[in-house]
Design a protein that fits this description.
about 25% helix, alpha+beta, single chain
């Protein structure tokens, strides 16, 4: 990374470009996503935080529905930490779903100005 002042990169939304444009060529989509993930991991190793926003979709199995990352399993395996932001009744919650160092847990948060 040539810009030494950069400490955070946010991509919102990685999903937008891949959900519809590549629906007929999943192999190519997977290769491109993997290349992007590899570049972002390389950037993250240079002490730059990388946040990538993904959408969720509903998967139905055995008559039960669950929310899953929209880009599928190949993308899900690329991420180091996964946090789900969601509502529970009247509160906003962040749930740590995947981390190599922390157990799964949920905390409430408040959005201010």
């Amino acid at each position: 990374l040539d810009h030494t002042q950069v400490k955070l990169i946010i991509i919102d939304s990685i999903t937008f470009h891949f959900r519809h444009d590549f629906s007929d060529d999943m192999g190519n989509r997977t290769r491109i996503l993997q290349a992007i993930a590899n570049k972002l991991m390389k950037i993250a190793k240079s002490k730059v935080a990388v946040v990538v926003v993904n959408q969720v979709t509903t998967r139905i199995r055995n008559g039960m529905s669950e929310l899953v990352p929209a880009l599928g399993e190949s993308w899900a395996h690329c991420v180091t930490n996964r946090i789900s932001l969601h509502w529970s009744k009247e509160s906003r919650n962040a749930t740590l779903l995947k981390s190599p160092h922390c157990k799964q847990q949920t905390v409430q948060y408040i959005v201010t100005k």
